[in-house]
Amino acid sequence: MTEPLDLFRLDDLLTDEDLQLRDRIRAWVRTRFVPEINRCWNVGTFPLELVPEIAALGVFGGNIQGYGCSGWNALTYGVALQELERGDTGLRTFASVQGALAMNAIHMFGSDEQKSRWLPGMARGDTLGCFGLTEPNHGSNPGGMETRAIKTSDGYELTGSKMWIGGGTLADVAVVWAKVEGEPGLDSNSPAAIRGFLVERGTPGFQASVIEGKYSLRIGITCRLEFEHCRLPHSALLPGSNGLKSPLQCLNHARYGIAWGVLGAAQACFEEARDYVLHRQQFGKPLGSFQLIQRKLALMATEITSAQLVAHRLAQLKDAGKATFVQISLAKRNNVATALNVARMAREILGGVGILDEHVCFRHMCNLESVQTYEGTDDMHLLILGEHLTGLSAFS
């Protein structure tokens, strides 16, 4: 096995603790997770028996202080997610849904009681969560959501549906976003009316079902959530949630993690392609000695290095409290596009064997097609940047 790609000596920016954590997660992924991946991919399931071990790595809510969470800085958290996605995007997504979305929503907008009740168990992996924002008719426009929480004398009545929700059937608690009706002075059709609610598994009127037939993210359990006159107590409301900006803050955490995670997928594909061409013989010499192959490897290495620099700088800005949603959008879009391009090129280098499950590049390529869409499509992130550059919104 050749050395990981680090042309600009970015490992020098990591502490000894960061390097030890990275190596520990990388070793766990290689020895514990990768041997299970083809079995899980073929049947379309997640290896739930490994959840306690994933939790023990510290990745669930890794950026949260207290409540049994790791309290890592942004750089350490990014490195951890990168190593998870070396194994599979579905693994990193599982950790992101649990931590960056569900746990962060509770941590940022929940009451002290809600935080104490849910976060410690979620950090240990004893309790699983999901995040219900996207709807069947409202993907890129979450402000148009149709799910309603009608205020009642003893709480709220939730009606509506959510789509493409990671871990929905596994979750003990769902963070669900809805527009509130019945609050004095609040227009229920406005994005300002959006609030977060904690809906526990088994609540009457709440059903979750798995979306079948995916060619991508096959180890990720992706679900529909349905709410039919689902009655919630006042205590289900996340009291600090206030308008569409609240779930978007959670998405910023998740998008940051994606910008790092896909680097793991890209590096896995690059390393596989490089190893392959050093050992594969064609016309009496290693495939890696041909000019076209070296050109492809050089292009892949350049793109990965550029994406690494973006992720590291974004981590510095995030730790300094200076990262903006525009910077996060740029990083998410750029690094996903880079990783997808690298995965496609690696598959091309491997030729016919690149489609076999003994290699990783085709699986990563399929997964990255989904990552290019979720947490904001490629085009939507370009429009976020375009609005920043021109001062003109193209969304409406």
Outline the secondary-structure elements.
Blueprint: H1 16-43, H2 51-56, H3 74-87, H4 89-109, H5 112-124, E1 129-132, E2 148-152, E3 155-166, E4 173-181, E5 194-200, E6 206-210, E7 222-233, H6 245-279, E8 281-282, E9 285-286, H7 291-319, H8 325-350, H9 361-371, H10 378-390
Parallel strand pairs: 1-4, 2-4
Antiparallel strand pairs: 2-3, 3-7, 4-5, 6-7, 8-9
Helix pairs in contact: 1-3, 3-4, 3-6, 4-5, 4-6, 6-7, 6-8, 6-9, 7-8, 8-9, 8-10
Can you walk me through this structure?
A hairpin with a 2-residue loop joins strand 2 and strand 3 (155-166). Strands 1, 2, 3, 4, 5, 6 and 7 form a 7-stranded mixed β-sheet that branches. This protein folds into 3 domains: 10-124, Orthogonal Bundle (Butyryl-Coa Dehydrogenase, subunit A, domain 1), CATH 1.10.540.10; 129-236, Butyryl-CoA Dehydrogenase, subunit A, domain 2; 245-390, Butyryl-CoA Dehydrogenase, subunit A, domain 3 (Up-down Bundle). It contains 10 helices and 9 strands. The chain is of the alpha+beta class and 396 residues long. It has helices at residues 16-43, 51-56, 74-87, 89-109, 112-124, 245-279, 291-319, 325-350, 361-371, 378-390, and strands at 129-132, 148-152, 155-166, 173-181, 194-200, 206-210, 222-233, 281-282, 285-286. Helix 1 packs parallel to helix 3.
